[in-house]
Amino acid sequence: MPSAHSARRPRLLVSRPTLLASTLASTLACSLAGPQESPRIAPATLYFAPGQTTRTLSIHNPSDEALPLRKIRLDTATPDWGSFQLTDETLPREIPAGAAVELQLSADSQHFIGERPHGAPPRYRQGQARLLFAANGDRSVDLRFEPAAGDGLWVLLTKLGIFAALVAALALVDRRRALLKTIPWLLLLVVATLPWGPALCFGSLGEPLSSSAVRQCAEGYGGTALTLSAPTGGLLLCFALLLLGDLTRCAATLRGAAPATELRLGLRRLLCDLAMLLALAPALIGGASLDPAALIEHQLASGWGILSRPVAALLAFLALLQRPTRVRRIDPEELALAALYSLIFLGGWALPGPAAAIQPLPHGVFLALALLVSLAKIAGLVVLSRFLRRRTAERRQGAQSLHWWLLGLAAAALLIQALVSTYSAVA
After folding, report:
1. CB-CB contact of 126 with 144 (8 Å)
2. Quick check: 344 and 305 in contact, CB under 8 A?
3. Are residues 128 and 210 in the same domain?
4. Are residues 48 and 180 in the same domain?
5. DSSP secondary-structure letter at 39?
6. Alpha helices, DSSP H only, in 8-81?
7. DSSP designation for 351
8. How far, CA to CA in Å, does 106 sit from each of 46, 52, 53, 333?
């Protein structure tokens, strides 16, 4: 006869084999799911300088679940932790799935002044600290203060190699290799001045980077800008060299025994170049900068110049089309003008569509794509202009005064743009 204790024992609703099978299944599912993906942190190191005391850190969560973000603090064990601070009003507590959060940091440059000679600017020292936080494990980001940024010798050699490859790629457009028979000064200056990509970040070619990380590399911290030289007013140097070449050829024609046809062609080339430069001016005024990198950044934010300044883009292209060129070989100046047109109206290296669409690409892939896009735009402009020039050759011979009309229309467009900009500034 069963005891009272055995009579009160509850009956199992699930058999032991079924319970064992479900336990094994859940254990197997957990093992297959694996650990949660680690967040992507960019930049891996934040560089501060006397002229750049604020930086943005991006933390991206690639997983399908929200990721807690905790224990955000400066490492008090580092020597200069008191010279840096987090400037966010409220710190984020989690990173949404598939999204990113940003942390704003600043550095007090006064704490890094090592010497202050009388009557001379202060001399800064290097500094270092570390930012700590927890996001699927303990994370850290180095914070560094550098007195100045500069490219080393091997960085300069890398730039020279890229520069030589670009010149060789443009020379391949001319199958007769006529580009290399004389020194194409304007083309060399344009290739050296224009940016051919956002920036080259060393050690990060295989991983996606945020815009703030790429911007830091372009400033010379952890990378370098993809331009050989960025002098102040570099575009003005290109424009001046273009007009100087036209005037030099006209003067040589007047001094020599060249036929009148050569003089007319030289004068027509000069007027077309003037018309193109006047047509480019409204886009430069809209971009409020003569810095090629700043012009590309402006078009990334507000759209290509051909969409925001369609009249100026059309006048500049007509001037490029009307410009006398050699029939059977590529003119170096034609390539240089196509590169300038691509920079100002087609976004230079910028890909079509929003910039955020290509953020997931690895940095090296994005750089290669940007370089190919730059070359494709230049080659496309040259091919299109030469095709249209051949198709409209007879009509252009009957419209000898078209370059004068282009010059007048470009000057009128520039005047209207200047008046609109002045009125907007006053209002």
Report:
1. yes
2. yes
3. no
4. no
5. P
6. 16-33
7. P
8. 10, 9, 5, 46
Dihedral (Cα; 415, 418, 422, 423), 10-degree rounding: 60
β-strands 113-115, 123-124 pairing: antiparallel
Range of the domain at 124: 34-52+104-110+119-148
| DSSP structural state of residue 105 | E
- Output phi, psi for 139, to 5 deg: -125, 155
Label residue 11 by pLDDT band (50, 70, 90): very low
Closest of 96, 209, 206, 75 to residue 139, by C-alpha:
75
Same domain, 140 and 174: no
**73 inside domain:** no
Write out pLDDT tens, residues 287-325: 667 888 888 888 888 888 898 889 889 999 998 888 877
Based on its alpha-carbon atoms, the radius of gyration of the chain, rounded to whole angstroms, reads 31
SS3 call for 196:
coil
pLDDT digits (tens, 9 = 90+) for 110-163: 999 877 777 777 889 999 999 999 998 999 999 999 887 666 666 677 777 777
Q: For residues 417 and 425, what is the distance between their CA atoms, to the nearest angstrom?
A: 12
Whether 350 maps to a domain, the answer reads yes
**Is the full-model pTM beyond 0.85?**
no
Question: How many CB atoms sit inside 10 A of residue 150's CB?
Answer: 9
Does residue 355 sit in the same domain as residue 376? yes
Residue (of 240, 236, 247, 387) closest to 321 by Cα position: 387
Of 30-34, 212-216, 338-342, 389-393, the range with the lowest mean pLDDT is 30-34
Statement to judge: residues 143 and 291 lie in one domain: no
- Are 171 and 141 in the same domain? no
Domain total of the chain? 2
User: Are the CB atoms for 323 and 172 separated by under 8 Å?
Assistant: no
Nearest to 194 by CA among 274, 284, 101, 290: 290
95, amino acid identity: I
Joined tokens for residue 1: 């006869």
Question: Where residue 33 falls among pLDDT bands split at 50, 70, 90?
Answer: very low
Distance CA 85, CA 19 (A): 54
**348 within domain boundaries:** yes
The Cα–Cα gap between 290 and 38 comes to: 42
Bridge partners of residue 60, in order along the sequence: 40, 100
302 within some domain: yes
